[in-house]
Design goal:
The structure is a single chain. By secondary structure, the protein is α+β, with helices and mostly antiparallel strands. The protein has a domain at about 30-95. Helices cover about 45% and strands about 10% of the residues. The chain contains 3 helices and 3 strands. The protein has helices spanning about 20-45, 70-75, 80-90, and strands at about 50, 55-60, 65-70. It has a 3-stranded antiparallel β-sheet. β2 (about 55-60) and β3 (about 65-70) form a beta hairpin. It is elongated, with a radius of gyration of 28 Å.
């Protein structure tokens, strides 16, 4: 039968390791969580593009899900003539269109 080693004591921490209290750890965790939440909120409040796994362009920040179109589709949507037409359409139908933030 194999003998198992019995640990009777733990090695003492080195002198370069600072003593950290539970309260300090809790404060550090709360600070990091606040920074993470602020970063997430900042990202939610703006539009940003990403390339999807299938090579399309996804725009995040418009709603719950990204708006994803392929390059040729975005080029059609972003054509200045179509943008002018779309703006005119929105103005003409402003009374019947919903507004979401």
């Amino acid at each position: 039968m194999a003998k198992t080693a019995k640990i009777t004591s733990f090695p003492s921490p080195s002198t370069s390791t600072p003593d950290v209290t539970g309260a300090e750890l809790t404060a550090t965790i709360q600070e990091l969580e606040a920074k993470l939440n602020a970063a997430k909120q900042a990202r939610k409040d703006r539009l940003y593009p990403k390339v999807s796994a299938k090579g399309a362009v996804s725009v995040y920040g418009l709603g719950r899900w990204p708006t994803t179109l392929y390059r040729a589709q975005w080029e059609k949507v972003l054509d200045p003539a179509f943008i002018a037409e779309l703006r005119a359409f929105i103005e003409e139908n402003a009374d019947s269109l919903s507004v979401k933030s």
